[in-house]
Specification:
The protein contains 5 helices and 2 strands. By secondary structure, the chain is mostly helical.
Length: 137
């Protein structure tokens, strides 16, 4: 029960990720969103290595869960990271790749799960670096 609010945050973000992907896939404006199935990873690297990325995702999720209790100050960033990792893992298991649809034209196409992962990692790094800076003073 002590982690219920973090589980709720994770599940809410996962729902948002799944809902946006389903909306984009079923949108009458598909040409505007232009959803793509990315069988690779970051920036499209490692195309057609879906099984490898499924295994990496599972290991990564299990690692985050294993250190969750030791890193209390990182619970919210970890909720973001877990939601993103779970969203992309589900895509890989269902669609044999990740559904990407946010196209800024100057950056590779991505999705909300990617935003949650990157945002959570940056947030966690800021927290850790702030603590290290305070500790060294």
């Amino acid at each position: 029960m002590k982690h219920l609010k973090y589980i709720e945050v994770t599940l809410f973000l996962l729902f948002v990720d799944i809902a946006t992907k389903l909306l984009v896939l079923q949108s009458p404006f598909k040409e505007f969103f232009n959803p793509k199935i990315n069988t690779g990873a970051l920036f499209g690297l490692g195309q057609n290595q879906n099984l490898f990325f499924i295994l990496v995702s599972i290991v990564f999720i299990l690692y985050i869960l294993s250190i969750f209790d030791r890193e209390i100050r990182l619970h919210v960033p970890f909720a973001f990271i877990l939601a993103g990792a779970l969203g992309n893992l589900l895509d890989r298991m269902i669609y044999n790749g990740v559904i990407d649809f946010i196209d800024l034209k100057f950056w590779p196409v991505f999705n909300l799960a990617d935003v949650f992962i990157v945002g959570g990692i940056i947030w966690a790094l800021i927290i850790v670096l702030k603590k290290e800076t305070k500790r060294k003073k």
